[in-house]
Amino acid sequence: MGIVELLGLAGSISLLSGWRLYLTVFVTGLAMRLQWISLPENLQMLDALANPWVLGISAIGALTEFFADKILWLDSIWDTIHTFIRPLGGALLALAVVDAGDPAWQVIIFLLGGGAAMASHSAKAGARAMINTSPEPVSNAIVSTGEDFATAGLLVLALTNPVAALIIALLLFALCIFLIYKGYHLWRKIVSSGN
Question: What pTM, to 2 d.p., does this model score?
Answer without folding.
Answer: 0.80
